[in-house]
Amino acid sequence: MARKPVLTGGKRDEIIKTATALFFEKGYEATSVRMIMEIVNGEIGMFYHYFKSKEELFDRVVEKFFDDYRKKFEALINEFKTPDDFVDSFLPLYEESMSKFDLLRTNMHWTIQYAMAGKTIESMRPAIEKLLDNWNIKSDVPSDILAGQILYGISATIHSKEFEKLDDEKKRYQIRAFLSALNLKEE
User: Quick check: 128 and 151 in contact, CB under 8 A?
Assistant: First the structure.
């Protein structure tokens, strides 16, 4: 017999919320389906009504994580009137996200860490394109490529060991220097 389609909400959302907390606290490998279902007061069979596997659940958790991150970032976009506004707002969001991610990555294989870093950049690309448009930045480089260049450049900067050692003001300076080096022009 074919599975009935499962709508969002209710117990399914509770399972995702609980799994998110456990994955961040204990890591993927140390979190079991049984552990999740005990917390949500459900049977193992209920889990398999909603998800085919723990891997599928993890995919939903990651999707939700990035969807929430993207929404927060997009909400900030309208406040960015200048590159300085961007830097000042971006760093606290980055710090918050990295502290959550650090909890998760302690038990995560490096390949997944790299995939998540790439997914973060891709989830932010449309917001950066919108930001460039809001700032009226024009370039011979198509906006999706320019947005990617900016994001990958900032990512390389903020994920360096040297950057982590800097105080907040020096971190802001480094990102501002990177953006200035791009020589973006308003039209």
Answer: yes
User: Are 152 and 104 in contact, with CB atoms under 8 Å apart?
Assistant: no
* Predicted confidence (pLDDT) per residue in 116-149, tens digit: 777 778 888 888 888 888 888 878 888 889 899 8
84-86-91-96 Cα dihedral, nearest 10 degrees: 150
pLDDT, greater one: 81 or 145: 145
Report yes or no: 130 and 77 within 8 Å, Cβ to Cβ.
yes
Sign of CA dihedral 88, 121, 111, 113: positive
List of residues 6+ apart from 129 with CB closer than 8 A: 143, 144, 146, 147
Hey, what long-range contacts does 125-128 have (CB within 8 A, 24 or more apart)? 125/151, 126/74, 127/70, 127/73, 127/74, 127/77
pLDDT for res 101: 65
Q: Where are the domains of the chain?
A: 60-186
60 pLDDT above the threshold of 70: yes
The dotted CATH code for 60-186 is 1.10.357
